[in-house]
Write a structure and sequence with these properties.
One of its GO terms (molecular function) is phosphatase activity. The structure is a single chain. The chain is α/β, with parallel strands linked by helices. The chain has 11 helices and 20 strands. The chain folds into 3 domains: 117 residues, 3-Layer(aba) Sandwich (Rossmann fold); 110 residues, Rossmann fold; 69 residues, GMP Synthetase, Chain A, domain 3 (2-Layer Sandwich). Helix 3 crosses helix 4. The longest helix has 19 residues. It is elongated.
Amino acid sequence: MTRLKGAPEALASAYDLALLDLDGVVYLLHEPIPEAAATLAALPGLDCDPVFVTNNASRSPETVAESLRGMDIPAEAAQVLTSAQVVASGILDRIGKGGKVLVTGSQALRDAVTGAGLVPVDDPKAAAAVAFGYTPQTSWRSLADTTIAVRGGAFWAVANLDATLPTPDGPLPGMGALVGAVATALGHGPDFTAGKPEQPIYRIAMARKPGGRAIMVGDRPDSDIAGANRAGIDSLLVFTGVASPRLALGLPPQERPTYLGWSLAALTEPHPEPDWNEAVDRIDCGGWTAELDGPDIRFSGQGEELDGWRALCELSWAAADMNGYDPSRPPVPVGPAAEKLLAA
């Protein structure tokens, strides 16, 4: 019954690998999350190795690691996994070493292709595969060459299908928009997608410690968490990026995490497990109670605010699955502490 798990000790100590999304988890628009540096420094002592997992194919692992160190976040290139590396791996598996690849994207993507033993070419008609990644300089000619290559039988591998990318000016067209333009011309989508929530990037990240237990830490339920669920690994949803506790109440089953945390620091903290009653209509967690009352969830108690959200999420998810509860219906607060939490 329980979807959210508990952890009696520091969460990371139960895992061998922590797969970490970057923007919204480690930093936000190039500003470090306050708890990130201390959390990353603590992971070795918990026997948990970080893997910085990014859908961004425009930066090399060395560049990503250098950028993180510039924020005082401990990171090495060997701890970074980019979608460019995964694209190159997917193409290598398909066409073998020495295969000719049309590269549409950044120098980092071209370097990943070359590093995998593949040969970049400029002639779309000579390409056995296309490595397709984001760059602001992508032109109509680049999209046209991709279309020509794929129409001629080339294997089409893309870095991700993210519809937008975050910028100081708000969300702007991302890889998914570029892929959509080519897909419209072709009448079909790519043969291989490297990044989250698709599985290749999870498989390659987990292969860095074969047989080890992995946890995905992300801020996007539809990408980070959904991909972790598909991969069969646990996940931690943090609220330093796009998700909020209120948004979490209405998550569909495929986007529900195993743990909730205010930030990446939740990896170094214990997590109380929500406690169901025998009638399966009430949950207690850390001094808070969420209880079904007809079409409503009544919420009462006091304590750590996140424990209250844990109780509410657990009951909201279960009631939506079993009883047809409408998660958009706001919980009914009982008492000043509950009113304060829900008003925030």
